[in-house]
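Much of what follows relies on a compact textual record of a protein's fold. Here is one such record, which you should read through line by line:
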Amino acid sequence: MAVFRIERTRDYTVMSNHHLRDKALSLKSKGLLSMMLSLPEDWNYTTRGLAKICKEGVDAIGGALRELEAAGYIVRHQMRDRQGRISDTEYVIYEQPQPKAPDTPLPDTASPDTENPYLDGPDTEKPAELNIEKSKTQKQTTDVPSTVENKQKFISQIMTSKSPVRSCDDVDETALSFAEIKALCAGDPRIKERMDLDVDVARLKLMKADHQSKQYRLEDQLLKTFPEEIEKNKGFIAGLEADMATLAAHPHPEDGFAGMEVRGDTLTDKENAGAALLDACKEVKGTDPVPVGSYRGFAMSVSFDAFRQEYMLLLKGQMTHRATLGTDPRGNLTRIDNALGQMPQRLEAVKNQLDNLYQQQAAAKAEVGKPFPQEQELRDKSARLAELDVLLNMDGRGRPAPEAVLAKSSRPSVLEGLKRPVPPRSPEKKPKHHEQEAR
């Protein structure tokens, strides 16, 4: 008598399958989390301890732990001792991802204003060196180094001739700009005006370059793109209308089949025509179309798509109509008729495209030739900027001294100077003999 014995597995684990269905986790992270959930609570949950019970190394386990922590399945807490110092790190493992804690703003760590108060003590300086008028300046509460760093982010932007895709403006009202710092140091508000004008002129020049680029593009579209596209769509419309006339001249008889020519044989039965077409497809091996016959006034050719592993039937008239072939003989004939029957929809789509091109052409004609709308503002600010450059001597050169205006009668004549005789040169006196000896 046969004896049947059942061996049951008792060391199983009950866990949530939420992480197993999480598409955001990799297979490695899913397996590691399942293994950790199956271990007892007092297990050594370290990367080296986990590496001892699996094939993966310490680096691979560390990467999976970081992925689980980023997904919210592992939450890390910093443990502090009595003195408030970080002493250890606690990891809590969850079966479902936990929402991240909201970001809390950091407290303001700026140092308080420690300016010493003004004390009226006796002045020990010499009376001759004293300045009678003393001015008090209010201390700026803005951190100047951080101001410079933040402003540099805006100044270091790259200026190109391309269209600006986004703009950035200051939202901090208390921060000082470079122009304000320089104006405060120099005591001249024209410096700030000059730097603001410099930024505005650069922005306006960029906008003008973008406007000119659009104008050139519109001119190119009006001269080349729109005429070519319009002629191409007109050709599509003429070709589809001619193919629709060809299809109407070769209709199917009532409850019948118009017939198909395959490799020189005219077949009037649907089943035989579909089977003959499939046999002709077996001889096609490449992507180059191979002629196989004709159908309803259109020449047929077949090509093979190696990537999709399917045959494509091309029906050639004035236009080319495509139909994907399958394995059903009658179904292929239905697909061919459906491809030919889509010509009215294609014709309507091409007509809509042609109307859209005409509208775009009219809009381009209305926009081309328009001047830059802020041209006058650019001229005024450029002129004011040049004026400030002269007033502030921004080029570092001194002002040229005004030239003395001489009357025409007092000006020396070059021609008279050339006609004037050259005075004879006096011979050089040679030293006497006794003078040479004295030397």
In short: The chain has a mean pLDDT of 76. Residues 237-363 form one domain.
